[in-house]
Amino acid sequence: VRGWGTRYFFTFYSEFGDRHGAAGVEVAILTTVFITSVVANISIAAAVLRYREMRTVTNCFLLNLAVADCLFVMGVPAVALARVSPQWRLGDLVCRLLPYSQFVCGFVLLWTLTLISMDRHRCIVVPPYRSRLTPKLAALLTVATWALAAVLFLPVAFWFGEHPSLEICTLVFPRYDGINLSLCFTIPAIFFTCILPMSLLVYHYQRIFDKLLETRKRWVTSNGYAVNDGKGKEDASRKISLQQIVYPARHTSLTHHEELRLNKHVKVVRVLLLNVLVVLIMWLPITVVMFLIYVDGRRPTEDTEFFLRSHYFIWALLVAYSNTLVNPLLYGLLSENFRACFSRLWFGSKRRKYACKSALTQDASRVQKSSQQIEDTQGHTGRKHRLCYHLSCSDNTNDRQKSNAQCSRHCHSYPGSTVTIADAPSTATILKS
Hints:
By secondary structure, the chain is mainly α. The chain folds into 2 domains: 20-223 and 255-351, Rhopdopsin 7-helix transmembrane proteins, CATH 1.20.1070.10; 366-431, no CATH class. It is 55% helix and 8% strand. The protein is built from 13 helices and 8 strands. The protein has helices spanning 20-50, 57-73, 76-83, 91-124, 135-152, 154-159, 181-221, 243-246, 256-297, 310-322, 326-334, 336-347, 399-403, and strands at 160-163, 168-171, 240-241, 373-375, 385-391, 409-414, 418-420, 428-431. A 3-stranded mixed beta sheet has the order 3-4-7. The protein has a 3-stranded antiparallel beta sheet with strand order 6-5-8, with no helix packed on it. The protein has a two-stranded antiparallel sheet with strand order 1-2. A hairpin with a 4-residue loop joins strand 1 and strand 2. Helix 1 packs antiparallel against helix 2 (57-73), helix 2 packs parallel to helix 5 (135-152) and helix 4 runs parallel beside helix 7. The radius of gyration is 28 Å and the shape is globular. The termini are far apart. Residues 1-5, 223-253, 350-354, 358-410 and 412-433 have low confidence and may be disordered.
């Protein structure tokens, strides 16, 4: 470039030479990923938007992930076309927008997962074990994430461009005396886009699983609670102290309310954690390659033995593109609720096996009719106790029924030291009085 001296250019999407065989394989894989990802992520978005009961805070973030995945994978046709031609033929505008959109979508994806981990961490680990987020606030956070990413990576749209003589789409950092602009941009971009959100993800889910492990041990050692064997089976011979339900201020062991709350999140956390692990693994290659491209470009001008080629970047990018399939596959295979929603979307309600509800709004630990007694072990004999429960609205409950008492809180007073839960409906969930 005139006035800048000898410069090295990384071709990114294009590669010189006769490579029709390898290009055909790359294009076939890219096409498969593109079609499958678009269909799957549209299904995720449709499930959240179509069914009101799916519009929870976590699912709002998952909707944002689906949007980011769709926008990210929209660059696949341009990349596929560039692989079958040694020259860049899509013009300067596409050359600027393609990497810009990839950086922005990658930032949004990782930080959306981080926001989900923060919300789950607060619900499970931090008292009073409630999310402060609402779907509207979650939507505002997603908009803020997109805005921040759009501003942060705006220089990419200016520094990428079509080289007029070489006919490649490449990145050219401006040169200023005394300022290493490439270093000033690359290191903060890698830190805030990858290192920081990945560190927060590991921290939050580590604390969540420490909490679940601690709770598991308390279930086993507590004399007043059913013991969960990890497979959904419970020892019904254990008795639960009414004192720990009606008088929550007095905690002698794990409260029933806490047990219900934690049970409700276990399955969701499993899916989210698996999603996070796959995302970290699949975004690590492109992060490493981008850093190596920076290192490779800092070689002395007389050193022409580059160890990076365009196909390394493309295969790392292909792994990142494949990540756009992870969210729909995980939810479709592991989430009972999304499976039900997909069944309703694709096959109609007649093939629905489960109610299409969010796992975080369902009562995951419903109280079944039983002759099991709830005993007051704290010496409150003769007092009247209240058994409070909440009736869950089924998927078929219409708006008029939901406005009535069928979905409301019910309390009944019982004299003496014992009370049974047989009077509570099978769809009831025990509440604190």
